[in-house]
Write a structure and sequence with these properties.
single chain; 12 helices; 46% helix; 17% strand; elongated; binds adenosine-5'-triphosphate
Amino acid sequence: GKGIAVFTSGGDSQGMNAAVRAVVRMSIYLGCKVYFIKEGYQGMVDGGANIVEAVWSSVSSIIHLGGTTIGSARCKDFRERAGRLKAAKNLIGRGITNLVVIGGDGSLTGANLFRQEWGSLLDELLKNGEITAEQRNKYKILNIAGLVGSIDNDFCGTDMTIGTDSALHRIIEATDAIISTAYSHQRTFIMEVMGRHCGYLSVVSALTTEADFVFCPESPPPENWETRLCKKLDQERMAGQRLNIIIVAEGAIDRHGEPITAGQVKKVIEDNLQQDTRITVLGHVQRGGSPSAFDRILGCRMGAEAVMALMEADENTEPCVISLDGNQAIRLPLMDCVKRTQAVAKAMADKQWEDAVELRGKS
Ligand code: ATP
């Protein structure tokens, strides 16, 4: 059978383990040899004990764990051709010509580049005498399937990225806990949540926790947001509410593209309303902890579909990303999705927020 390897790269997210598990078990079920590459691209470049064959039981008891048990990393070496040359040699040595990459847009971009260079990397290895002519011919095609692991839900082409739902649950749980203490002391709480370019976590958590105000990256508030905010909070208190909750995404900005921070919002409230105001920064709590049922199933479905895509791939097949479209797992051209994701980031940087939202929405 084919040689398949799976690795996780970039920031970790809940549900990655479910995806790794599905890749391993589907591969074995279909008669393939399947490998873990530990520590992302770094493990691929370094080789050795970082690339190990997986068996059925290697992925027992991991579906309920957050993070990624096979490790993840950011890797400078893989950004250089010399690093990718080493990685190619390590893969060929084990007969691996199929990769399942689980990561964000950076990791998928790296995989695409690797695939494009594959032929020339093998030529160089052959010239250096590091592989044989037989190996050069046998392993001439590298097939790639990508899965998007990210808690931010910031990738174009998929309705949900692996990890988003769990992060959202964590935020809601923490906010519910804060609400009970805020109620007792009639306090105002500002919750800082993740989401550098994407307001999904902040907006959905605001809607589901009955927050009074939300600041997110792609919909900057009007110029006079300070007045509006204070008016809204005041109104709620006058109407008998004992507390206020404000959600601030870490990437929140104003109409000039300048950051709006939790500290700034606190100062505005204290200066104008004299409310007892506290900040809670959720930080990495959002990325950790056990994955939700949704993320476990999402990881399983995406992982299984990635293996199917690799099984069906031939030399003309472009790298694909497995996406969730409604309730369907579908395959989309990897680079189209990455390019659109990058176009959204650019539109945001250019302060074209409406364009960014429209671009992200298109499938
Ligand atoms: P996150 O959503 O957490 O940022 P990501 O996959 O986008 O995840 P990056 O740090 O951008 O995270 O990329 C992870 C790794 O992928 C990098 O450390 C690098 O090894 C590799 N990589 C990223 N971009 C490229 C590229 N253009 N060429 C080669 N390798 C790349």
